[in-house]
Amino acid sequence: MLAAATGLATYPWDEALPLRGEARSRSCGSSLAMALAVDGEGRIVRVGLRPHACAVGQAAANVFAAAAAGRNAEEIAAARSAIAAWLAGDGPLPDWPGFELIEPAQAYPGRHGAIVLAWDAALDALSLYHP
């Protein structure tokens, strides 16, 4: 998980990215700012991240960013719902590439808020998209 957290350097913050969102975990205080560019259909084409998160939050953000391209707000929201169900013990491991890396953190409820930061920040940013 620590190695994945260092992968965030692949997604540097870029002031030129037009859609911006933020999320904060109430349980651990981690936060994440995200900037996105989307195509004409609202699908993510570029991600920039500014993390202030624990290793779990950073690793989850890396997992998010690595598979975000081509996804729209509806797909992100569906994944967020699946993650919430999984965290609550009410669903299978979410169908998001690389998410199995985050699986050990399910046993630590204090980190659940950090796990969903990227999906929440993306939804916040995508709420600004108006074609």
UniProtKB/TrEMBL annotation:
This is Iron-sulfur cluster assembly scaffold protein.
